[in-house]
Amino acid sequence: MTSAPSTAASMLTPEASRALGQALGDGAAVASLRASGAAALDRAMPSPALDRPWKYVDPAALELDGFAPPDAASADWAGAQDVEGLEVAGFKEAPEGALARLGGAVAVDGSRLAALHYAFLRGGVLVEAKANAEIGEPVRLTREFTAAGGLATPHTLVVAGPNSRLSLIEEYRSNDEPMAVLPAVELLVGPGAVVSYTSLHRWGARTRVFAEQRAVTEPNSDVRSLSLVTGGRLVKSHITSALEGRGSSSEIYGLSVGGGDEHTDFYTVQDHVAEDTRSDLLIKSALGDRSRAVYYGLTKVGLGARRADANQENRNLLLSRTAKADSDPVLEILTNDVTRVSHGATAGPVDEEELFYIQSRGLTREGAVGLLVRGFLGEPLDRSGLDEGVRNELSALVETKLQAVGAGA
Hints:
By secondary structure, this protein is an alpha/beta fold. The protein has seven helices and 19 strands.
């Protein structure tokens, strides 16, 4: 892991946090969270030696004090739609009433990473679907970061009113300069609402990312998320669904294609709190060169989560002898009244018998490998529920990365 240039003292101080807030002209909700984050900057970072979900993270990657705070004058996001029943606004322009829920899903006191995020929050966007609104086309946000040696802290607050329908696609990009990004995504899903959230991680070769995504469901609601990772030196995504409403459901899908020395790390929590809740999870990775994929997944079924139905799968395809995959699925079940709780994990090379069969149909070995890999990675996309046009768009991103690691058509 290449560290940022070190400095004699951290630039990420409470004083720098206050200065950023003053320059941005924070509203009440953001100002309160920024102050809370600044007050918690002395918290310890997660310890790879002690914290199981962080076991495979290089401790040097968590040394962030050499990075500079976000620039108050920089552009932070692009994308807006003028649709009835939909509000898309930066935090400075967003209604304070909606921002009252900011920080309700991703807590400011969760870790030092969360404290840093809120203390230096820059680039907040509210996406709100009003009650009963059906937003037909996906809402799109683009985040692009170019500041060498800088810290970026984008925040997306999604509020889905009762019985609303909303799909959001958020794309993250950076150049090849060293930088650290701490994105946070809060998905607040009202009664009977359906939310689809897709994140596209197209980071540069020297970007390290610690992403926090947490959904909270109300009764009879549904949240579905897809995370696609095709770049970044280290991309660690902590994705949680808190199924707090009876009859609510969650689907978490992820796929990554690794090359070079890239490290993709998924840490997921399927937290069944209420009765009659359902969750499904499928994370797949295809790994070339010296890349690595790590998965730590926790399925929790609480005492009150009777008749929970939960499934968790992690599958990894090793395209080189130097690629690595590590899976650690965990179940925590506190009630004996469950419909199903299952998990599975695999890692291995392309099946030689399948390759032989496909080659017997006239394909070269390279073509056969490409066909198998595309089929392997296609499952999360197919199960995502996204429309065909979006799936084709994402498949093209996957194909481009597969070509780069020598596993394309």
